[in-house]
């Protein structure tokens, strides 16, 4: 009793509301992007994969400024001085962000100029400068300019009748200083056309010779300004506020409101300016005076602007030896060769782990439903589908085949709004009932419900996932898919669709945890359960795999669990506001982040439950936006073999000693140290296991290969 009383006294002395116990969201995200940048430096990665990682850090950073920095700048302008969970006000955050991002940009260009470009040149992939162009190459470039580029490019003058133009965000622009016949200084701009590749591939017998479109325009700049002297021409890039301002309460038609707001994204206020380091004083001053940016948000660049365009080099054909070895997602032994996917699901629940196993099974599930005369209705949520989508084709086909098709399309999915609006219109045209999300909430849950008439009556089949219905990213993102026809799951999913499409109050959920109504409480309940187990003399253990951990109530609960003696292991890819190794608070918590070939995207939750483990997968991260402002689901996995499979997956992530970085007490992330008898990379191991599992299955039985005729 005395010991328990002492523990309670100690616990009371610790104020978990203290700012010192939490990391800042924005700085934690920047730390994640540094981890991606490390992959660009890592010489154990193939060269073009390193180029790809560098490109990703640039596009990541661009989106960060468009959304996160833009929001902080607005708060600063509005005079907001409140603090976040780490005790930083907007001004403090912007100052620290500036310090980190300037260091990041410096490291990006050091990687490009001192490592990647020289290595590419050794492989005969050259990015040529104007001085490198011989007569033969010049003839090709001149012809390309005259026939392809020149007719499209539009120079934009600036004078009394033509004020400073609203140049689109994120694109490359050329600033031009001119002199007229009177010797007066004038300014103009040339936006680079975005319909062409950034890198022009010049025919060459000696490897690949690339030339930048902006350098081509510089070579021919006189043709744009006949009668004027070009004093200077230099590139710059503006990043603008990209968050849509949508007044949902006042929007009679959400679709029209979002389409209107998308136009604002191109003209939002500037939040970052990148300029060439060699830009002259006149042009520089003209830009700075016109854009009115804080000096913290101005970056001088020594090489090519917009490193995201390096993806063009990373995707060059004919250089497979400089890329990761090709991996074909493996068929699942549960589905492969079976004549009917519904029969398989009736026999047992099925789990897929993509991209190690094939997303084709998910598409085949929907394809068979669209064609099956016994299927009466299909209901699906769509968040990010992509520009091309077999999923949409199957839904349209189902509607054409007379099935009741209901699709909840989230038209507010950031940066996918245009795609989703287009798909919504296509689906409506085909006769589908389309719902454009909910006012005040984003529908982020990944759900597919199929209603089928069978001998015993109506049966419902359900697919739930941690990832989107996007067949392109399904090969790049790591996710978990779950199929079942158990009535308890189906009832919950049906009830949730009734809420999304009509007027219906949330029921008492039989299986699912659902945000924003009960998901946070469900998480807290299971964390508290582990604390109770320890208090009763048992061993408590929690393993969580998520993309982000930011919610204060969840972090507090995890701190309390650690203080009670629960062993907490967290696999957090990106933002982590929780701090480790705080004496008396988080000594029992370990945090690691895995960054590798595939984007870690699944959310898996494990609670030891006194020897009777509870396993869940979810569409939700542990962030306020997921728990309060989105429709999310958490799905219990109850079939014993599937539970064990998830446990095995989590253990593999905890075993990684090469691509995993451990969170340190000072907030830094470091690769695991100490002697390594053998390098263990979780993603490579999962690829090997999937291949081994399928080959073993094939050897055991004869299989009808109608599902995968082009099996690799």
From TrEMBL:
<feature type="binding site">
    <location>
        <position position="573"/>
    </location>
    <ligand>
        <name>ATP</name>
    </ligand>
</feature>
<keyword id="KW-0479">Metal-binding</keyword>
<comment type="similarity">
    <text>Belongs to the polyphosphate kinase 1 (PPK1) family.</text>
</comment>
<feature type="domain" description="Polyphosphate kinase N-terminal">
    <location>
        <begin position="22"/>
        <end position="127"/>
    </location>
</feature>
<feature type="binding site">
    <location>
        <position position="414"/>
    </location>
    <ligand>
        <name>Mg(2+)</name>
    </ligand>
</feature>
<keyword id="KW-0547">Nucleotide-binding</keyword>
<dbReference type="Pfam" id="PF02503">
    <property type="entry name" value="PP_kinase"/>
</dbReference>
<dbReference type="InterPro" id="IPR041108">
    <property type="entry name" value="PP_kinase_C_1"/>
</dbReference>
<dbReference type="InterPro" id="IPR025198">
    <property type="entry name" value="PPK_N_dom"/>
</dbReference>
<keyword id="KW-0597">Phosphoprotein</keyword>
<feature type="domain" description="Polyphosphate kinase C-terminal">
    <location>
        <begin position="341"/>
        <end position="505"/>
    </location>
</feature>
<feature type="domain" description="Polyphosphate kinase C-terminal">
    <location>
        <begin position="512"/>
        <end position="677"/>
    </location>
</feature>
<dbReference type="GO" id="GO:0008976">
    <property type="term" value="F:polyphosphate kinase activity"/>
</dbReference>
<keyword id="KW-0418">Kinase</keyword>
<protein>
    <recommendedName>
        <fullName>Polyphosphate kinase</fullName>
        <ecNumber>2.7.4.1</ecNumber>
    </recommendedName>
</protein>
<feature type="binding site">
    <location>
        <position position="477"/>
    </location>
    <ligand>
        <name>ATP</name>
    </ligand>
</feature>
<keyword id="KW-0808">Transferase</keyword>
<dbReference type="InterPro" id="IPR024953">
    <property type="entry name" value="PP_kinase_middle"/>
</dbReference>
<comment type="function">
    <text>Catalyzes the reversible transfer of the terminal phosphate of ATP to form a long-chain polyphosphate (polyP).</text>
</comment>
<keyword id="KW-0067">ATP-binding</keyword>
<dbReference type="InterPro" id="IPR025200">
    <property type="entry name" value="PPK_C_dom2"/>
</dbReference>
<feature type="active site" description="Phosphohistidine intermediate">
    <location>
        <position position="444"/>
    </location>
</feature>
<dbReference type="InterPro" id="IPR036832">
    <property type="entry name" value="PPK_N_dom_sf"/>
</dbReference>
<keyword id="KW-0460">Magnesium</keyword>
<dbReference type="GO" id="GO:0005524">
    <property type="term" value="F:ATP binding"/>
</dbReference>
<feature type="binding site">
    <location>
        <position position="60"/>
    </location>
    <ligand>
        <name>ATP</name>
    </ligand>
</feature>
<dbReference type="GO" id="GO:0046872">
    <property type="term" value="F:metal ion binding"/>
</dbReference>
<dbReference type="Pfam" id="PF13090">
    <property type="entry name" value="PP_kinase_C"/>
</dbReference>
<dbReference type="InterPro" id="IPR036830">
    <property type="entry name" value="PP_kinase_middle_dom_sf"/>
</dbReference>
<feature type="domain" description="Polyphosphate kinase middle">
    <location>
        <begin position="137"/>
        <end position="313"/>
    </location>
</feature>
<feature type="binding site">
    <location>
        <position position="601"/>
    </location>
    <ligand>
        <name>ATP</name>
    </ligand>
</feature>
<feature type="binding site">
    <location>
        <position position="384"/>
    </location>
    <ligand>
        <name>Mg(2+)</name>
    </ligand>
</feature>
<dbReference type="Pfam" id="PF13089">
    <property type="entry name" value="PP_kinase_N"/>
</dbReference>
<dbReference type="InterPro" id="IPR003414">
    <property type="entry name" value="PP_kinase"/>
</dbReference>
<dbReference type="Pfam" id="PF17941">
    <property type="entry name" value="PP_kinase_C_1"/>
</dbReference>
<dbReference type="GO" id="GO:0009358">
    <property type="term" value="C:polyphosphate kinase complex"/>
</dbReference>
<dbReference type="GO" id="GO:0006799">
    <property type="term" value="P:polyphosphate biosynthetic process"/>
</dbReference>
